[in-house]
Design goal:
The structure holds two protein chains of two kinds. By secondary structure, chain A is mainly alpha-helical. Chain A has 16 helices and two strands. In chain A, strands 1-2 form a two-stranded antiparallel ribbon. The longest helix of chain A is centred in the middle third of the chain and has 31 residues. The N terminus of chain A is likely disordered. Chain B has two domains: about 60 residues, no CATH class; about 210 residues, MetI-like (MetI-like fold, Orthogonal Bundle), CATH 1.10.3720. Chain B is globular and about 75 Å long. At the A-B interface, helix 1, helix 2, helix 4, helix 6 and helix 7 of A face helix 1, helix 4, helix 5, helix 6 and helix 9 of B.
């Protein structure tokens, strides 16, 4: 470490902070003062970026939400009017409802697939690794690409889905062009993309359950269903809670695949909260900001619930 | 472990089924990209292409500023990853190894910011970029994302698990703070750093809403934005769209395949033995 000794005075932030070297007292505490300067220097770059480009815009969002402004003329203060507008009957309410339905569909679909996959892959099967690779693969692909793939799969006349359905002698649907089918069709893309990731998280939870519990249950003649209910589900709760909240949190921010596949249509049937914000962003700044603040409050509530749940699991 | 065959069969069946569900769309993308349009719009879709050609790839590259889009995506993702590795590591170091007045405040602030996703600050962030004159420049795509609360949080969580004795030993040898961070802490943190790098790269590479908002110039688009725009401009040329999609997916899929172990360990909290 000879070189380190030689180099250190030039490299330390202590030195940069102007603390004199103390040749007569080389003790740890003295050479490395609990320097406020070193601390602040280390966090400053990141802090500046985060304060400037996330924290400050967040505050701006709240301020803009009380203005009427089309980005060109002067701003006009209108108080809570934007909130009244969006929370009244209209497209924002629809987008909120759509987002809720989307979240519910994604939640149920992903949960069932992820849990079944995690349980099937839990045994040391030779194929488990291959399955893991394949099921996580969609998560790596950019969302825009996923949206395009599925748009092609859903294509009414030549798409793979309707072709396969046609083989069974049934007429396919016009998936993304049908008011009732479009939202579930888009939700399926989210399920497809992320169930593998959630299966992995659940798998981690499953592997933490001690095998002795199952052995004891088998000795007590508990059947597979009974074992699932009395051991697997309760022991899986921490992982399951994490998956649940991540899913809800992410579903509320859904945008990319909606924009690529339907742009919120047909009509407003796939308009989600972020899609709504996007359509208003350049023309109705105040309304878009108010919608952003509402979204933020929802996400904040979800986060608080998440923190509550995780801290309870830990205690 | 003795496996009862009656139990093994449905299990294996499910794994096959779920693999088809996950893998078929990806396979379909690749197959489509290799077939001429006339064949795709034939009477029925076929899984095995009648003829294979790379024409679609050639056309994507020549008809669109594909390499510019690809280059933009790569440059932006690389810059964001590099920035995060430096800024997040420094901040995580300061927040875990240095005691200073205000540390708790900074930590709380960063944790609070963890809850603010880009989606809820799109409007004011766009306005900032406009006022700074950063629209249609790399600055808008890179600067706001050079540091992230999530990265700092992850790295701090890791640094906290490393024993303080390491720092003390380094200090005894006369190493300064940066030296200690560089040659003592970082070598035992490659897994955490790798996770941050991979996640950040994937996320930035796939980002769509923000880059399509702050780029108007065709040559400033990132790959996902270019692809999405391109599908709106033309009657769907699925062969081209899928060829472009394959090329947009390759870098991240490649990274994923190479770093899969790390990924699996990160997600399962180390519970799954590889």
């Amino acid at each position: 470490m000879h070189t380190a000794t030689e180099l250190s005075p030039k490299l330390t932030s202590d030195r940069a902070g102007g603390h004199p070297d103390r040749p007569h007292g080389p003790g740890r505490r003295r050479r490395r003062p609990t320097g406020a300067l070193a601390g602040w220097l280390s966090v400053a770059p990141a802090l500046l970026v985060i304060l400037g480009f996330t924290f400050y815009p967040m505050v701006q969002s709240m301020l803009l939400s009380t203005d009427r402004w089309n980005m060109l003329g002067p701003k006009q203060f209108v108080g809570a009017e934007n909130y009244a507008t969006i929370l009244g009957p209209g497209t924002f309410r629809e987008s909120l409802l759509n987002t809720l339905v989307f979240t519910l569909l994604t939640l149920v679909g992903t949960y069932v697939l992820a849990l079944a996959t995690a349980m099937a892959a839990n045994r040391e099967l030779a194929s488990a690794r291959i399955v893991r690779t394949i099921t996580v693969l969609p998560a790596v692909i950019p969302m825009v690409v996923a949206g395009l793939i599925w748009k092609w799969l859903y294509e009414p006349d030549h798409g793979l889905i309707n072709t396969l359905i046609g083989l069974a002698g049934v007429d396919g649907a016009r998936w993304l062009f049908d008011n009732d089918l479009a939202l579930p069709a888009v939700a399926l893309v989210s399920v497809w993309k992320d169930f593998g990731i959630y299966a992995l998280i659940l798998l981690g939870g499953l592997q933490r359950i001690p095998a002795e519990l199952y052995e004891a249950a088998t000795i007590d003649r508990a059947g597979p269903w009974r074992q699932f209910r009395s051991i697997t589900l309760p022991m899986l709760r921490p992982a399951a809670a994490a998956v649940f909240l991540l899913l809800v949190f992410n579903s509320f921010k859904v945008f990319d695949q909606v924009w690529v596949m339907t742009e919120g249509g047909p009509g407003t049937s796939t308009l989600t909260v972020v899609t709504f914000i996007y359509t208003k962003l350049l023309t109705d700044v105040g309304v878009a900001s108010a919608a952003s603040v509402v979204l933020f409050v929802i996400l904040l509530l979800i986060t608080v619930i998440r923190l509550r749940l995780t801290s309870r699991e830990e205690s | 472990m003795t496996r009862r065959p009656a139990e093994g069969l449905p299990r294996a069946l499910w794994l096959c089924l779920i693999s088809v569900f996950a893998g078929l769309p990806v396979l379909w993308m690749v197959l489509t990209s290799l077939q001429p349009m006339e064949e795709l719009l034939g009477t029925s879709a076929r899984l095995v292409p009648a003829s294979v050609s790379l024409d679609a790839y050639r056309e994507v590259i020549t008809r669109f500023p594909f390499w510019e889009w690809f280059g933009n995506s790569f440059l932006v993702a690389a810059a964001v990853v590099a920035g995060n590795l430096v800024f997040d590591t420094l901040a995580a170091y300061g927040l875990s190894r240095i005691r200073f007045r205000g540390r708790q405040v900074v930590l709380t602030l960063i944790l609070a910011t963890l809850m603010i996703p880009t989606q809820v600050i799109l409007v004011p962030l766009y306005l900032m970029m406009r006022d700074l004159g950063w629209i249609d420049t790399y600055w808008a795509l890179i600067i706001p994302f050079l540091a992230s609360p999530a990265g700092i949080f992850l790295l701090r969580q890791h640094f906290v698990t490393l024993p303080m004795q390491l720092d003390e030993a380094a200090a005894m040898d006369g190493a300064g703070r940066l030296r200690t961070l560089w040659s003592v802490l970082l070598p035992s943190s490659w897994a955490a750093l790798g996770t941050v790098a991979v996640l950040k790269f994937m996320w930035t590479w796939g980002e769509f809403a923000w880059p399509s908002l702050v780029t108007n110039n065709e040559l400033m688009r990132t790959l996902p934005v270019g692809l999405a725009r391109f599908q709106n401009q033309f009657a769907p040329r699925w062969d081209l769209l899928m060829a472009g999609s394959v090329m947009a997916a390759v870098p991240v899929v490649l990274g994923f395949v190479l770093l899969q172990r790390l990924f699996v360990r990160g997600l399962t909290g180390g519970a799954v033995k590889e």
